[in-house]
Amino acid sequence: MENFTPISSILGGMLIGISIAILLFFNGRMAGISSIMNGLLNSPKNEMFWRLTFLIGLILGAFIFQALTEKTITPSHPHSLWLMSIGGFLVGIGTRLGSGCTSGHGICGIANLSKRSIYATLTFMSAGVITVYFIKHIQGLA
Amino acid sequence: MPSLISLLSGIIFGLGLSLSQMTNPNKVINFLDITGNWDPSLAFVMLGALSVTFISFKQILKRPKPFLIDDFHVSKRSSIDKALIGGAIIFGIGWGISGYCPGPAVASIGFGSVEAFVMVLSIYAGFLFQKWGHRKLSRVE
Predict the structure, then answer these.
(1) How close, in Å, is residue A35 to chain B by CA atoms?
(2) Is the distance from CB of B42 to CB of A90 less than 8 angstroms?
(3) How far apart are CA B4 and CA B6, in angstroms?
(4) What are the helix (H) ranges across chain B?
(5) Distance between alpha carbon B78 and the CA centroid of its chain, in Å?
């Protein structure tokens, strides 16, 4: 557990919570990222712009963090880009079929005590654990 | 105005993801790797976020309407169906393979990460595939 970072994790999590609360208080929207992303494909025009600015903000936030801390954060590649794009493809299918991702079900839905979100979160966490177990310990891919 | 708020909300979200290092796919994979070198950080990110949303949602949703627009857009669905569970399984597999869920994938574009850009494109490919499959299936029925 030498990489465990409890303090920055709690603080970062609280920032995420504040961001979600702001969006709900002012705009009446749940910050489920997969839903906001998907909305760019099929929303009416007047529903398009806030989604776009949210996603731009998300990119800007990471950019600002990197500029402020002067750390070069180059995410390390767990796998080849091919395997990553298969992962991304499954993330896209799964979050639409299951109507949400870590933010929508895991944070917004659970805070709202939605039974659907609690089931979904337990399911995708378990599927993730089993997948990593197979890749790391059985296949020896990583 | 709502677009400015969502820009601000997005920036804070991106700062939170970066500070908590959820933008690092290896850290996410180490959270899921419970039999290996387990890193519980992701659970603490969720706890931090839930501590804020759990309390604030109750207060916010008591109000007759949001500050800037007329209605709250909150899902009231409650059925646990095959699509929900099947979708969550597929998402979990993709998450375990890549170490990215949608938020960190988008945010990491801000680090200039090619990998994140590829992730976002493939997530969109998944969206389109699901939409196409859904349309085909509903035509058969």
Answers:
(1) 10
(2) no
(3) 5
(4) 2-19, 25-32, 41-62, 82-98, 102-107, 114-140
(5) 19
- Residues A34, A95 contacting (CB under 8 angstroms): yes
Is A111 close to B95, i.e. CB distance below 8 A?
A: no
Q: Enumerate the residues of chain B whose CB falls inside 8 A of the CB of residue A73.
A: 18, 23-24, 111
Decide if A141 touches B, using CB distance below 8 A: no
Q: Are B91 and A77 in contact (CB < 8 Å)? A: no
pTM of the model: 0.94
Residue of chain A whose Cα is closest to the Cα of B3? A50
The boundaries of the domain holding residue B124 are: 2-140
Residue % of chain B over a pLDDT of 70: 99
Q: What 3-state DSSP class applies to B126? A: helix
- The predicted complex's ipTM stands at 0.94
**Parts of chain B with a pLDDT under 50:** none
The CA angle B87-A83-B95, to the nearest 5 degrees, is 35
Return the residue in A84, A133, A137, A139 with the most chain B beta carbons within 10 A, the one to mutate for interface testing: A84
Domain ranges of chain A: 6-139
Q: What three-state secondary structure class fits B39? A: coil
Structural element, H or E, at residue A37: helix A33-42
List per-residue pLDDT tens for chain A, 142 residues long: 668 889 999 999 999 999 999 999 999 999 899 999 999 998 888 889 999 999 999 999 999 999 998 776 666 666 788 999 999 999 999 999 999 999 999 999 999 999 999 999 999 999 999 999 998 877 655 4
Tell me the torsion sign for CA atoms A59, A60, A65, A71: positive
Chain A contact for B34 (CB, 8 A cutoff): yes
Contact B88 A6 (CB under 8 A): no
Cα-only R_g, chain B? 18
